[in-house]
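Summary of Year 1 activities. Much of the first year was spent building the evaluation harness for sequence design. The harness presents a backbone, in tokenized form, and records the residue chosen at every position. We chose the following record to illustrate the format because it has been used consistently in internal testing since the harness was completed.
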């Protein structure tokens, strides 16, 4: 049996935190290693516990979830961040992605959507809730993302980036392009550096905005 996915939950509503813990641990395959009620504590506990996933609200005392996301990236680089919030405006979604969030979900998502998003992020994929994705894509269509201009990518790098924007993980990309997963990982590191981004979600957004990949289909 594989090790459970370890999760830090940060939200200033006690009942909501407790509900998340119950959902995750009842489902199996997850262990909540810490619960905190503010952004500063979230960064501190991420530094101490090194969880696989930090599940963060945006509106918290001390630090917002967006600023906590930035600081967690430095305090625990292996931790991937999932924003779970009521904020629906597209600029907040984009700001969270720029800060390094790997996923953005709304609190009215059902439990199955949350579970799948956490698992996708753990696998190294990106996850935007359908309505959040629509808002980000609308900003990109209007050219308001203000992402850094990418340097020239090789044809192979463009192929890889297009598949990242589709939501494929490294294994799927390797199979489609007849390359090893290690090669894909190395190429992605180079692509991230050229684009000035730190994760797949940011890379996919830059790719769409700059015409390097088509917008993903939103169900």
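For this record, the design step produced the sequence shown next.
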């Amino acid at each position: 049996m594989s090790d459970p996915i370890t999760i830090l939950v940060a939200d200033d509503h006690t009942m909501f935190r407790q509900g998340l813990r119950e959902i995750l641990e009842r489902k199996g395959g997850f262990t909540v290693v810490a619960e905190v009620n503010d952004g500063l504590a979230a960064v501190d506990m991420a530094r101490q516990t090194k969880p696989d996933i930090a599940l963060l609200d945006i509106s918290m005392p001390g630090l917002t979830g967006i600023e906590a996301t930035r600081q967690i990236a430095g305090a625990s680089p292996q931790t991937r961040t999932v924003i779970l919030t009521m904020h629906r405006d597209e600029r907040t979604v984009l700001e969270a992605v720029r800060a390094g969030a790997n996923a953005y979900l709304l609190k009215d998502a059902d439990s199955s959507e949350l579970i799948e998003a956490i698992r996708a992020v753990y696998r190294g994929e990106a996850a935007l809730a359908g309505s959040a994705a629509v808002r980000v894509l609308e900003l990109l269509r209007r050219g308001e993302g203000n992402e850094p201009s990418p340097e020239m990518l090789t044809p192979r790098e463009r192929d890889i980036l297009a598949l990242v924007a589709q939501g494929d993980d490294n294994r799927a990309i390797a199979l489609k392009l007849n390359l090893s997963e290690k090669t894909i990982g190395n190429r992605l590191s180079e692509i991230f550096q050229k684009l000035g981004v730190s994760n797949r979600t940011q890379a996919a957004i830059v790719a769409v905005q700059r015409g390097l990949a088509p917008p993903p289909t939103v169900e």
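The chain has ten helices and six strands. Quantitative recovery figures across the full test set are reported in Table 2.
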